Amino acid sequence: MKLKRINIIFMFMLVVMLAACGGNDGGGEGEGLEGSVVIDGSGTVYPLMSRLAEDYMINEQENVSVEVSRSGTSAGFKKFLVEGGGTDFNNASRHIKEEELAEAEKLGINVKELKAALDGITIVVNKENDWATELTQQEVIDIFLASANKKNWSDVREGFPNEPIQTYGPNENHGTYEFFWETIIGEQDLVDNINLQQDYATLVDLVTKQKNAIGFFGYGYYESNKDKLNAVKIDFGDGPVEPSLDTIKEDGAYAPFTRPVFTYLNEGMAKEKPQVLDFAIYAMKNAGTAAQETGFAPLPEEELQSSVDYLEGLNETNETKE
C-alpha cells in the first residue's frame, strides 16, 4: 500500500510538471519573465494588439505588464523615436515614412517592421440612410473631395435626397486618415466641413446621431458597432462589394480599399528587455487568430512565420551574446 501511494504521488507530480511545460502557442523561450512592454500608436490596430497583450499576460507571462495605448500612428511614432529609448513598439496603419526612418537612423534606433494583418477602409452611414447603401468608388471620392463640390446627397446621384452631406473621419494623427487622403483621395484637398476626430468612439457616436452622416474608419470598428451603423457596399467596377473578412484581401474584391497594418519593433529594446522580444514572437505567432477575432483579415501563415523566424533569430543572437 505504501509503494502504491508513493507511485500515485509521483504520477501527480509528473502531471503537474508536464502541465507547467505546456501552454499556448507561446512567444520565445523566456520562462518567468517580468517587467513591462510599452506599446502606442494606431487606434485602428489597438483592438488587435490589445487582444494579443491580454492573452499574453493571461496565458504566457503573468508577471509581464503589456501596456497598449492609442495616440494614433503619427503621434505614436513621435513617442517611439525618442533619444535614449521611447516606446517598445509603435502600431501603425501605414508604412513608416522616409523622414521617420531618417529620424530613427539619426537616433541609432534599429526599427523592424512587423506586418500584422489586413484592414479595409470601411465607409459607414447612419442606420436611417436607406439611399446610399451602395456607392461607386468615384462617388465615395467625390463626397470627400473638395473640388468635386458635392454638398448635398442629390449632387452625388439623381434620386438621392436634397439634404446636406455631413462627412466624418479620423484626424491627421491617424494612419487611417493618411491612407484615405493619400491612396483613396490621391492627396487632394478634402471638403472644408469634414469633421475629423481623434477618438474612434466619438466618430461612431457622431455618425449614429446624424441621418445625413457618412464617415470612414477601419473595418474592425464597424464590425464592433454594426448594430449602430451600416457599411456601404463599394462598386469598384465589377459590382457592389461588401467589406468582410473574405473580401478584405490584397488580391480580394475589396482590394482598392484594403491596406496592411503593422507594429514596429525597436530592436534595441528587444535586446535590452527579454520580455519585449518574447512578446513580439508571441504576437506574430498568434496574430492570425487574434486578427479574425478583432475584425481584421489574417495574413497568410507563411508571411507571419517569416516574421517569427526573424524574431527567433534575434533571440538566438541574444542568447549567444549572453
SSE layout:
Elements: H1 2-21, E1 35-41, H2 46-59, E2 64-68, H3 73-80, E3 89-92, H4 98-107, E4 111-126, E5 134-136, H5 137-144, H6 153-156, E6 166-170, H7 175-184, E7 195-197, H8 200-209, E8 213-218, H9 219-223, E9 229-231, E10 233-235, E11 240-241, E12 258-266, H10 267-272, H11 274-293, H12 301-321
Parallel strand pairs: 1-2, 1-3, 5-10, 6-7, 6-8
Antiparallel strand pairs: 3-12, 4-8, 4-9, 4-12, 10-11
Walk me through this protein's architecture.
The longest helix has 21 residues, at 301-321. Helix 2 (46-59) crosses helix 11 (274-293) and helix 11 (274-293) packs antiparallel against helix 12. This protein folds into two domains: 31-118 and 259-321, 3-Layer(aba) Sandwich (D-Maltodextrin-Binding Protein, domain 2); 119-258, D-Maltodextrin-Binding Protein, domain 2, CATH 3.40.190. It is built from twelve helices and twelve strands. The model is unreliable at 1-24 (pLDDT under 50). With 322 residues, the chain is of the alpha/beta class. The strands form two sheets. Strands 1, 2, 3, 4, 6, 7, 8, 9 and 12 form a nine-stranded mixed beta sheet that branches. A three-stranded mixed beta sheet has the order 5-10-11. The relative contact order is 0.19.
